[in-house]
Amino acid sequence: MSNKYLSYDEIHRQYISLGQTLDYVLENKNRIVDFFSTPRDVVFVACGSSYWLSLSAHKTMKLKTNRRTYAVKASEVILCPEEFNGIYDNPIFVCPSRSGLTQELLDAIDILKSIYPSSRIFSIVEYIDNKLGAKSDFTLNINWAKENSVCQTRSLSNLYTACITTAAIIGGDEAFIENLREYLQNAPSLYTKHETTIREIADAAKIKSLVTLGSGLQYGLAIAGAYIVIEMAQFDANYYQLLEYRHGPVVTAKQGTTVFICSGASAEHERKIAEEIRAAGATTYAVALSETDWADYTFSLDGNYAKEIIALHFAYVMQSFAYHFAVSLGKNPDSPGNLVPYIIYK
C-alpha cells in the first residue's frame, strides 16, 4: 500500500497541525505586536527548505508591514561575512527552523549579532530541545509540526504559515487571517480530491524530468516544490521564475517533462508560457484559484484566496506528488538516501 510510510499522514493530514499553528500564533498576537513595534529592518535567516519558505515569507512581510525585508542564506553569512556589514538598519533577524540545531544557522546568528549588536532575534522552531531558542529574544515553538520522517514536509508548511500569519498580525490584516482560516477549513476536502489525481500522475514510467515555476512571493514555495521531489524521490528536478523558463531552459521541455505552475502572476503570461511548454510536448499542471484552460490539469482551490494560500496549497500538492512518485520509483519516502533532518559539523 502506498500509504504505509510515516510521511503519508505527515503530508496528507497536515491541515490539522496548520490549524494548531494558526491558533498558536494568534494567541501570541499581543507579544508579536509589541516585539515588532519599533521600526526595524526584518531579515529572514535560514537554511535549506526553511530558506526557500523565507524567500517567499519576507515578501509577504514587506507587503503587509511596509518595512524593508530580506531573506538571507545562513551559509552565505558564514562564507562571506564581510558582505553583511552596514546593510541593515537596526534589524530583527527572523529565523524559521525545524530543529533549531543546524550549525550553519547558529553560527550565522553569532556572526550577525557581532555585526549588529543591537539586533534582536525572533525564531520559530519545532524541536523543543534546541539551541536557537537560547540565542533568541522571542521564540514561537510549534513542536506539533515536526516530522518523524526525514524530509521537511508539514514542517515547511507550518513554518511558512507561522511566518505569514506573523506578518499579517504586524500589518493588522485581519481579512488575510480569516482567508487562511477558511482555506484550512476546506483543506481536508481539497487534499482528498487532489490526491486522487496526484496518485494517477505520479507514474515513474511516464515522467522523465520535472520543473516547477512560480513568481514573486510564491517563488520560494515553487522552489521548495522542486526540492521535495529531489529529496524524497531522489529525482532530478529544476525550478525557475515563470518567465525565466523561456530564456533557455524551455529547450529541455519535451514529451516526458512534467511542469508544475504555481499560479498567481499575470494570467496572460501564465497562459503564454504554458502554451510554449505544451507545444514542446511537455505536460503542465497548475495550482490555481479556479480551473484554467491553459494547463493540462488544474488543482483548483475553488475559492478566492490570497497568493500566499495558493503557494501553501502548491506546497501540499508537490509534497503529495513527491511521496507518491517516490513510492512509484521504489524509494522509501521516509528516509531517502543518506539525508539527515539537520546538519551539524563533524
**Count of runs of 4 or more consecutive helical residues:** 12
Name of the CATH superfamily of the largest domain:
Glucose-6-phosphate isomerase like protein, domain 1
Helix content: 40-55%
Look at the structure and give the mean pLDDT: 95
Strand/helix succession: HHHEHEHEHEHEHHEHEEHEEH
Instruction: Bin the strand percentage.
Output: 15-25%
The CATH architecture classification of the largest domain is 3-Layer(aba) Sandwich
CATH topology of the largest domain: Rossmann fold
Uncertain runs are none
**What best-fitting shape do the alpha-carbon axes yield?**
globular
Largest beta-sheet characterization: 5 strands, parallel
Would you state the CATH class of the largest domain? Answer: Alpha Beta
Based on CA atoms alone, the radius of gyration comes out at 19 Å
**Category by helix and strand content:** alpha/beta
The neighbouring-strand order within the major sheet is 2-1-3-4-5
What topology emerges from the helices and strands here?
Layout (H helix, E strand, L loop, with lengths): L5 H7 L1 H14 L1 H7 L6 E5 L1 H18 L3 E5 H6 L12 E6 L5 H13 L4 E6 L6 H4 L2 E4 L12 H18 L2 H28 L7 E6 L4 H15 L3 E5 L15 E6 L4 H13 L3 E6 L8 E4 L6 H22 L18
Parallel strand pairs: 1-2, 1-3, 3-4, 4-5, 6-7, 6-8, 8-9, 9-10
Helix pairs in contact: 1-12, 2-8, 2-9, 4-8, 4-10, 8-12, 9-12, 10-12
